[in-house]
Specification:
single chain, about 260 residues, Leucine-rich repeat, LRR (right-handed beta-alpha superhelix), two-stranded parallel ribbon, 3 helices, 13 strands, repeat, Disease resistance protein Rpp8-like protein, LRR_R13L4/SHOC2-like
């Protein structure tokens, strides 16, 4: 009769979650956050009433996730592992009730599965080099209720400049954006007009992003971290950032000069 089970940080023998987990058919909440798990049992398909599932486990090696999630059609919140093995193929197209989805991998999941998830408010995407960016962009365009969008760091996104493929200014409801994607030259059309919070890291921007960011008049917080900007000079001009409350600039090793004009 158990409804809530939190196994965060638990270490399992041999890295295997016991198959008996499938007997807890009334579970609504299951968390394996940072748990020591490398293999999930197929019996998890019995957990059809789950509303919340956190599989963001602590694994140095990749984890095998059997294709059981398609059975959990009541899910509202799903957190997937960032590293899944090459044998993992997930069908998520029936999860039409999802509101939060973390770790959606374009390597292990069909991008078109996103088309049916019209209730999504929060989405974190892990890009792979096999991703069809045109299909991804058109699928994202249908998520009209999206409020927060993350592009997670991976080797592929760090090494290749993908941002030329993305136009995000049609996300009129998007309030939060986090990008760990290479973009040597920022473009104003890449940022939704009503953004309140933006976090950029590992972007490798060679041009000063401030002339673009300061024109996003709804911004309340800006974070630039870990080589988001690799230039030497940054300028915040008069009249820019009218609502900004917090600015965090860290680990920008090339930055030598920061000019803040009066009235910025």
């Amino acid at each position: 009769l158990l409804r809530v089970l939190d196994l965060s940080w638990v270490k399992f023998e041999g890295g295997k979650l016991p198959s008996s987990i499938g007997g807890l058919i009334h579970l609504r909440y299951l968390s394996l956050y940072k748990a020591g798990v490398s293999h999930l049992p197929s019996t998890m398909r019995n957990l059809k009433l789950l509303l919340y599932l956190d599989l963001d486990v602590d694994n140095e090696d990749s984890i095998h996730v059997p294709n059981v999630l398609k059975e959990m059609i009541q899910l509202r919140y799903l957190f997937l592992p960032v590293k899944m093995d090459d044998k993992t193929k997930l069908e998520l197209g029936d999860l039409v009730n999802l509101e939060d989805l973390y770790g959606f991998s374009t390597q292990h999941t069909s991008v078109t599965d996103l088309l049916r998830m019209t209730k999504l408010r929060y989405l974190a995407v892990s890009l792979s080099e096999r991703c069809n960016f045109e299909t991804l962009s058109s699928s994202l365009r249908e998520l009209r209720n999206l409020e927060t969008l993350d592009f997670l760091f991976s080797l592929e996104t760090y090494m290749v400049d993908y941002m030329g493929e993305f136009v995000l200014d049609h996300f009129i409801h998007l309030k939060g954006l986090r990008l760990a994607v290479r973009m040597s030259k920022p473009d104003e059309h890449q940022f939704p007009p009503h953004l309140a919070h933006i976090y950029l890291f590992y972007c490798g921007m060679e041009e000063d992003p401030m002339p673009i960011l300061e024109k996003l008049h709804h911004l309340k917080s800006v974070q630039l971290a870990v080589e988001a900007f690799v230039g030497r000079r940054m300028v915040c001009s008069k009249g820019g950032f009218p609502q900004l409350c917090a600015l965090d600039i860290s680990k920008e090793s090339e930055l030598e000069e920061w000019i803040v004009e009066e009235g910025s």
